[in-house]
């Protein structure tokens, strides 16, 4: 499965399916520089925001960091799955914070109480909270994280295009760069091998167009190819540049011809240039209206 | 995109871009348009240069390295020696290669135009509005490209787009004069004139071959009768046109020769001049007072009397002979034009 771990569960430790292990180890290998940079920063006590598109390996990076710092730090990895309280409980469990009152008739702590407990615990030091898919976290939890930061809390936020406000603005941020074509090819190859299928280089080169530098997509397109499903040319990665404005600009430059025609007193050139200008304007309207991209999947 | 679409787009772009109809240049562009696809063994050009293709295919995604401005620059560099041969071929190679990959920006996959930056250039940004290979939309693009090529080649053969517009929409003596100035040296230029004769007030409709042109007036010879008229808005024009349609005729080469005449009989001189010549210049002849007036009032006066000498303008040898058979030329200088 190519889904990032933790996106559908708030548990800190997850056993990944065997088939994905190859891919994930490769991603860790290819993201080694990023990982050591993050760890270096965390060891200095500096919280961090890591940005990357969906499938770029943020969650894998989070898991790896948790693994490496696990011996020295109490680490909690959490993601938000619809309930702030569930998230808080998961964090508390990972940090070893009690989730029940400590009197003789234990009652579960309320969300507010959990917030306070966790904050107090984080302020003791040697605690790390990794917030996966932090862009999904509700405002209440984000404000609470700001509060953690004001104390001695150490945070690692993993997010995909979060809004430019509150906690996201306050943390130093690092962007996960797309993997290189070579690295992507290695992941695709490993994935195909793990599935016991042989794909020829021409097919790899063709599939790789749909991947960009996104390791999760690398795995997905291989699976789609093996299953014989999926769009022939999906466009899900983010490494696209829309060239429409350039094209329209250069078309509009045809209008120059009209003015040359006027200047030289060449009536014919004036007419041709004028017609070309209007054609360019028509095309511009068409391109503008065509350019509204749907964010929905499917036809 | 299919390779035939690439080829036809490249041909259309080259035909329009450099205004050529040369089949060799257009073929060069079509071949160059296949080069970007050497990065996949699925293409014909890829199978042709197999070792290189294999190398690229193992390392790069399709439509990356070879579909970029950088690669176009390299191709331009490699093709630069063609500039010393014929610049059209250089442009055909560069334009063909560029169009060959740029067209793929309109497909779903896009192209890594700014390689080594891996971002893919796409037009338009909406993937649903981009082309699928072998989709009906691609066949539309293909047929539009073929259509544009045909039009462009036709226009180029007829002197280019703006000239065709001028000839279609501005039916006056001025645009005929412009065309004559442009092509008169190499082609015969014909005008079909509808108008009125200034002296006789008869309607005129006929085809004339242009012999000379000022800014807005033409001196032209009727193709059937061989009579010469001045057509235009000048006060001395015989035909005032309402509509002048101009077209280029067969290629022609005009040779002109200058003669200085001294003490020679008209008959003796004309014996050496070809029958289809046009003679312009001035002659001083003996007994000028006895020279008969020009025979035809309603045509352009090719032979005129002025202050002691005869002025000739595009006069035929026969005309001169019929008027001045027995006269003696004291001196004169003339230009004899002969169409070959």
Automatic annotation (TrEMBL), chain A:
Which residues span the membrane? 243-262, 268-287
Q: Which domain of life is it from?
A: Bacteria
Q: Which Gene3D superfamilies match?
A: P-loop containing nucleotide triphosphate hydrolases
Matching Pfam families: AAA_22
Write the record's keywords in alphabetical order, separated by commas: Membrane, Transmembrane, Transmembrane helix
* Domain ORC1/DEAH AAA+ ATPase: residue ranges: 46-166
Q: Name one GO molecular function term.
A: ATP hydrolysis activity
Question: This chain belongs to which protein, by name?
Answer: 9-O-acetyl-N-acetylneuraminate esterase
UniProtKB/TrEMBL annotation, chain B:
Coiled coil regions, renumbered to chain: none
What is an example of a Pfam family matching this protein? YdjM
The UniProt entry, under InterPro entries, shows: YdjM-like
**Record has Membrane as a keyword:** yes
Alphabetical keyword list: Membrane, Transmembrane, Transmembrane helix
Residue ranges of the TM segments = 89-107, 139-161
Identify the PANTHER family for this entry.
INNER MEMBRANE PROTEIN YBCI-RELATED
Its recorded name reads Metal-dependent hydrolase
Organism from which the protein derives: Shackletoniella antarctica
């Amino acid at each position: 499965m190519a889904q990032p771990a933790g996106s559908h569960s708030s548990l800190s430790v997850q056993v990944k399916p065997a088939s994905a292990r190859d891919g994930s180890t490769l991603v860790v290998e290819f993201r080694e520089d990023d990982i050591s940079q993050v760890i270096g920063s965390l060891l200095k006590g500096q919280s961090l925001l890591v940005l990357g598109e969906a499938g770029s390996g943020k969650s894998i990076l989070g898991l790896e960091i948790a693994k490496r710092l696990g011996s020295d730090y109490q680490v909690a990895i959490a993601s938000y799955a619809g309930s702030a309280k569930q998230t808080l409980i998961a964090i508390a469990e990972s940090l070893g914070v009690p989730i029940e009152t400590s009197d003789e008739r234990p009652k579960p702590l309320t969300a507010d109480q959990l917030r306070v407990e966790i904050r107090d615990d984080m302020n003791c030091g040697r605690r790390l909270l990794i917030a996966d898919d932090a862009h999904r976290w509700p405002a209440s939890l984000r404000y609470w994280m700001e509060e953690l930061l004001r104390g001695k809390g150490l945070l690692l936020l993993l997010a995909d295009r979060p809004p430019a406000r509150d906690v996201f603005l306050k943390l130093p941020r690092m962007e996960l760069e797309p993997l290189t074509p070579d690295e992507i090819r290695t992941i695709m190859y490993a994935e195909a091998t793990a599935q016991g299928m042989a794909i020829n280089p021409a097919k790899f080169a063709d599939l790789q167009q749909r991947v960009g530098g996104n390791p999760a997509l690398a795995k997905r397109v291989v699976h789609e190819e093996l299953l014989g499903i999926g769009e022939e040319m999906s466009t899900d990665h983010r490494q696209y540049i829309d060239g429409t404005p350039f094209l329209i600009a250069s078309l509009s430059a045809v209008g120059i011809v009209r003015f040359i025609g006027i200047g030289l007193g060449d009536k014919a050139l004036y007419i041709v240039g004028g017609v070309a200008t209007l054609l360019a304007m028509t095309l511009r309207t068409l391109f503008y209206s065509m350019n509204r991209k749907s964010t929905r999947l499917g036809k | 995109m299919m390779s035939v679409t690439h080829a036809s787009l490249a041909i259309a772009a080259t035909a329009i871009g450099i205004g050529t109809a040369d089949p060799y240049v257009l073929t060069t562009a079509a071949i160059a348009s296949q080069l970007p696809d050497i990065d996949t063994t699925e293409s014909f050009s890829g199978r042709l240069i197999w070792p290189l293709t294999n190398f690229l295919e193992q390392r790069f995604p399709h439509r990356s390295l070879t579909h970029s401005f950088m690669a176009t620059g390299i191709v331009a560099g490699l093709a630069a020696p063609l500039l010393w041969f014929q610049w059209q071929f250089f442009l055909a190679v560069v334009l063909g290669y560029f169009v060959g990959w740029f067209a793929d920006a309109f497909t779903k996959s896009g192209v890594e135009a700014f390689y080594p930056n891996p971002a893919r250039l796409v037009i338009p940004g909406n993937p649903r509005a981009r082309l699928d290979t072998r989709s009906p939309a691609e066949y539309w693009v293909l047929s539009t490209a073929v259509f544009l090529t045909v039009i462009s080649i036709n226009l180029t053969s007829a002197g280019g787009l703006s000239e065709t517009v001028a000839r279609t929409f501005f039916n006056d003596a001025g645009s005929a004069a412009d065309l004559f100035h442009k092509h008169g040296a190499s082609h015969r230029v014909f005008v079909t004139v509808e108008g009125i004769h200034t002296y006789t007030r008869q309607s005129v409709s006929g085809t004339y071959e242009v012999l000379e042109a000022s800014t807005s007036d033409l001196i032209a010879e009727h193709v059937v009768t061989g009579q010469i008229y001045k057509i235009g808005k000048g006060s001395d024009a015989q035909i005032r046109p309402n509509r002048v349609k101009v077209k280029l005729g067969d290629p022609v080469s005009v040779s002109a020769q200058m003669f200085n005449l001294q003490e020679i009989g008209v008959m003796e001189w004309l014996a050496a001049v070809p029958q289809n010549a046009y003679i312009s210049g001035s002659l001083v002849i003996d007994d000028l007072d006895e020279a008969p007036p020009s025979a035809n009032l309603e045509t352009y006066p090719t032979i005129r009397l002025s202050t002691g000498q005869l002025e000739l303008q595009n006069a035929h040898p026969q005309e001169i002979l019929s008027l001045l058979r027995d006269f003696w030329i004291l001196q004169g200088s003339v230009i004899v034009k002969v169409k070959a």
